[in-house]
């Protein structure tokens, strides 16, 4: 029991550490699920307020899955498409002139990027969130499984499904 | 290539042999480009420090409003004492879960797969599709406790307290049979024989006897009804039935049972479904779910169904 005394969510330092660690990826998760940016920011705030109010009941190790459950339930429209446009990190508006070639297609880098984005927006929410949590937030499958309360095997499957979906959309129009 | 293998490739967890044969395929370069470019995407900026200040401010305001001394009535005192005991109980359980020495045994099923599990006391668990249970063999003699994510039917050997933990509450019994469906925001319990006590996250409890059912939504007990039950859970006889269940949850169950993907193009998040579908006839199942909801669907290929 002593370890929880020191490391209680009701301790401001622990609460703050959890916030700095989890708030940004949690906000992104909501965007992947189809929430608008402002709404996602609000849900993150409300979720942390609830965590604080229930800090006696939630040990720090369970805070992550608790927050994702609360936030996921607060934004219920699981079949929504994505509202927020994602951006490419480098050379966002510069046309590189680069060509991407694989045995399955050949196209301009910019065209490929556009298609990929459109395909990501059309993914079912439960594949899109897992895929982008891994690609953008660099969460491992283990971390995603812990947050969503499902097995690592389930995450592997959803990632595979997402990749297949994206490939079929990108190759289809060629 | 199956989904799981493809997923493991991206995590860099294929064996050399698996990787070599994958890298020889035409699709490999396409997947590589997708993985790389998706990794360069960014979401709108988020200022964590500012957001934290805002949360702190909100918490301070709330505390200030609650600052007045409130005299507790007799009943409130009892309620406070009762919820305190439950908190201790939960904390104890979490501690047990997090102790690394006690590695729990975990059994899970994939989409379309069901499985029987025999617990150390010979209690039987039938796991429905896409479900996980875990329990600790080391501490089984002291506490018969399993955690469940998904749906399972339990036949419990008579004895001490037997408890099932879900993320929305706990279910306790003394030797009986019951079914738990724990999906997304809900946990449903149907009692088939004996007595079951269901406790939600706020500490409210209800006792179910034969042919009674209850549901916890977002951690709070909110509905009770009396289903017709046979000796076994209905999913074990090849069908799933739903009592005022949110349509997205029903659709997810369809996806899990048949291993398909359903793409819904209209907003159905607020709609509720009453009915049942079989596990061995996809066409019939789709009709039974979508016809009463007046939704049209179209089967594009083996795995994708679009609703409009």
Q: What best-fitting shape of chain B do the alpha-carbon axes yield? A: globular
Tally of structural domains of chain B: 3
Q: Which strand order do you get reading across the main beta sheet of chain A?
A: 2-3
Identify the CATH homologous superfamily of the largest domain in chain A: Winged helix-like DNA-binding domain superfamily/Winged helix DNA-binding domain
**Taking all residues together, what is the mean pLDDT of chain A?**
86
Mean pLDDT over all positions of chain B: 80
Instruction: Sketch the topology of chain A as an H/E string, one letter per element.
Output: HHHHEEEHHHH
How many angstroms separate the termini of chain B?
31 Å
User: Low-confidence parts of chain A, pLDDT < 50 over ≥5 residues?
Assistant: 1-5
Proportion of residues in helical segments of chain A: 55-70%
- Tell me the major beta sheet of chain A: 2 strands, antiparallel
What's the layout of helices and strands?
The complex is a heterodimer of chains A (174) and B (308).
Chain A: H1 2-6, H2 12-33, H3 37-53, H4 60-74, E1 87-88, E2 99-102, E3 105-108, H5 109-122, H6 125-135, H7 141-148, H8 152-172
Antiparallel strand pairs in A: 2-3
Chain B: H1 3-10, H2 16-23, H3 27-38, E1 41-42, H4 48-65, H5 74-98, E2 105-108, E3 115-118, E4 124-127, E5 132-135, E6 144-155, E7 162-166, E8 169-173, E9 177-183, E10 186-193, E11 196-200, E12 205-208, E13 213-217, E14 220-225, E15 239-246, H6 247-258, E16 261-264, E17 272-278, H7 282-290, E18 297-299, E19 304-307
Nutshell version of this structure?
The complex is a heterodimer of chains A (174) and B (308). Helix content of chain A is 65%, strand content 6%.
Description:
The complex is a heterodimer of chains A (174) and B (308). Chain A has 174 residues and is mostly helical. Chain A folds into 2 domains: 7-74, no CATH class; 99-172, Arc Repressor Mutant, subunit A (Orthogonal Bundle). Helices cover 65% and strands 6% of the residues of chain A. Chain A is built from 8 helices and 3 strands. In chain A, a hairpin with a 2-residue loop joins strand 2 (99-102) and strand 3. The model of chain A is unreliable at 1-5 (pLDDT under 50). In chain B, strand 18 and strand 19 (304-307) form a beta hairpin. Chain B starts with a helix and ends with a strand. Chain B contains 7 helices and 19 strands. Helix content of chain B is 30%, strand content 33%. The interface between A and B is large, with 75 and 64 residues.
């Amino acid at each position: 029991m002593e370890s929880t005394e020191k490391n209680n969510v009701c301790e401001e330092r622990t609460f703050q550490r959890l916030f700095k660690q989890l708030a940004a990826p949690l906000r992104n998760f909501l965007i992947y699920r189809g929430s608008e940016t402002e709404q996602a920011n609000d849900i993150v705030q409300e979720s942390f307020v609830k965590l604080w109010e229930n800090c006696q009941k939630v040990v720090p190790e369970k805070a992550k899955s608790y927050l994702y459950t609360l936030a996921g339930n607060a934004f219920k429209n699981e079949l929504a498409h994505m509202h927020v446009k994602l951006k490419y990190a480098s050379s966002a508006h510069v046309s590189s002139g680069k060509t991407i070639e694989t045995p399955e297609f050949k196209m301009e880098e910019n065209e490929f990027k556009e298609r990929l984005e459109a395909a990501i927006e059309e993914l079912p929410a439960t594949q899109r969130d897992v895929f982008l949590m891994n690609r953008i937030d660099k969460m491992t499958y283990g971390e995603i499984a812990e947050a969503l309360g499902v097995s690592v095997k389930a995450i592997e499957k959803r990632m595979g499904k997402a990749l297949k979906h994206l490939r079929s959309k990108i190759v289809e129009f060629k | 290539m199956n989904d799981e293998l493809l997923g493991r490739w991206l995590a860099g967890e294929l064996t050399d042999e698996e990787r070599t044969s994958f890298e020889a395929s035409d699709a490999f370069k396409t997947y590589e480009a997708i993985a790389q470019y998706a990794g360069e995407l960014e979401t709108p900026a988020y200022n964590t420090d500012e957001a934290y200040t805002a949360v702190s401010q909100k918490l301070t305001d709330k505390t200030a409003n609650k600052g007045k001394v409130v005299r507790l009535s007799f009943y409130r005192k009892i309620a406070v004492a009762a919820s305190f005991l439950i908190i201790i109980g939960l904390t104890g359980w979490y501690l047990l879960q997090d102790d690394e020495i006690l590695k729990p045994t975990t059994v899970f099923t994939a989409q379309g797969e069901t499985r029987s599990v025999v617990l150390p006391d010979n209690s039987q668990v039938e796991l429905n599709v896409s479900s996980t249970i875990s329990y600790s063999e080391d501490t089984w003699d002291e506490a018969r406790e399993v955690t469940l994510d998904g749906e399972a039917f339990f036949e419990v050997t008579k004895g001490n307290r037997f408890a099932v933990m879900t993320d929305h509450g706990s279910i306790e019994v003394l030797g009986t049979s019951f079914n738990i469906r724990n999906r997304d925001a809900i946990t449903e319990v149907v009692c088939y024989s004996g007595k079951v006590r269901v406790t939600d996250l706020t500490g409210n409890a209800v006792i179910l006897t034969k042919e009674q059912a209850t549901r916890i939504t977002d951690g709070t007990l909110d509905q009770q009804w009396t289903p017709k039950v046979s000796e076994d859970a209905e999913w074990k006889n090849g069908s799933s039935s739903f009592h005022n269940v949110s349509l997205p949850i029903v659709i997810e169950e369809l996806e899990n049972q048949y291993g398909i993907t359903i793409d819904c193009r209209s907003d159905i998040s607020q709609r509720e479904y009453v009915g049942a579908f079989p596990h061995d006839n996809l066409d019939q199942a789709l009709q039974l779910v979508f016809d009463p909801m007046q939704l049209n669907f179209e089967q594009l290929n083996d795995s994708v169904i679009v609703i409009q």
